[in-house]
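Re: beginner question about structure tokens

> Can someone show what the tokenized structure looks like for a real chain? I only ever see the sequence side.

Sure, here's an example I had lying around. Input first:
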Amino acid sequence: MERRVRAAIGAIIWATLTGLPAAQTGIPKETQLNPGRVTAGAGNFIAIGCVSREGPSTTPTFVMTDSRAKPPAQYRLEGDADLLRMHVGHTVEIGGPITPASGTGGGANASAPTLKVQSLIYISTTCVKLQ
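And the corresponding structure tokens:
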């Protein structure tokens, strides 16, 4: 009886120790919720707004609408598609360098500047109009 109890305890400890490292890698590679905080200045820009998606599902374009400006400003987002897909319909803060609109690529937001996502901070599960 004692031998069976020790074997069971050993099996539980082994399963726990081998499963622990696997459980710590739950976020897919290069898809972090906050890859790094960016501060405004030195070529970086901070936008707060709602993430949306346009275009076909095979090559989607992600757009952020920053409703703090009048009229609301829109930015095409350049970054990890999996990360951005998780935040469609959410209010987030995105930081990174901004490049002027290229006018190419089609879509309603072809004339919007591009914001490269270097930092993404989750704010809300819904899109809210910020005042």
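Each token stands for a local structural state, so reading them left to right follows the chain. The mean pLDDT is 77.
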